[in-house]
């Protein structure tokens, strides 16, 4: 039987309904991340970047996106445990009137860094968490690009390593208790 548009839409609707069911009904519990080595660095970077993104969405009044980012922060904090950076380790410095261009920059940074993380992460459960975050952040990127009237990205995202990603993110952070050199 050939796949028709109607069949595809029915399948998508069924998947959408399944995603609304409680986690225990639709799928089994996911394994807890057990980060090792560089996994910690990627999780810590992503946690901080998601906090910045959450602050952006809260500041521009997009409460749904801010709440989704808060859930990302919660998952990352749980995965890191005692290795999670505390919110008061740094201050988020956003412009007085953040633009959609900043959202594009943040979501692109997350997508590119998470893409790079998937190649470097050692623990499979940590990689799964990062892949799920990548899927969500890619959706956010598509939405903010559409809001700016910018077409979707053509081609594949270019991975970004932690050093380059950290340098980009640092422009939006201040660490008041960090010693100056």
Description:
The protein has 181 residues and is mainly alpha-helical. The protein has 2 domains: 1-30; 33-174, Ferritin (Up-down Bundle), CATH 1.20.1260. 63% of the residues lie in helices and 2% in strands. It contains 7 helices and 2 strands, in the order ααααβαααβ. It has helices at 5-20, 23-26, 38-59, 63-80, 100-120, 124-147, 162-170, and strands at residues 91-92, 173-174. It has a two-stranded antiparallel sheet with strand order 1-2. α5 (100-120) runs antiparallel to α6 (124-147). The radius of gyration is 18 Å and the shape is globular.
Helix content: 55-70%
Distance between the termini: 68 Å
CATH architecture descriptor name of the largest domain: Up-down Bundle
DSSP helix count?
7
CATH topology of the largest domain: Ferritin
Q: Strand portion, in percent?
A: under 5%
Tell me, rounded to a whole number, the average pLDDT.
Answer: 86
**Mind summarizing the main beta sheet?**
2 strands, antiparallel
Number of E strands: 2
Give the class-level CATH name of the largest domain: Mainly Alpha
Q: Which structural class do you get from the secondary structure elements? A: mainly alpha
Order of strands, widest sheet: 1-2
In total, the number of domains comes to 2
| Gyration radius, in Å | 18 Å
Runs in which pLDDT lies below 50 for 5 or more consecutive residues are 6-19
Estimate the global geometry from the Cα principal axes.
globular
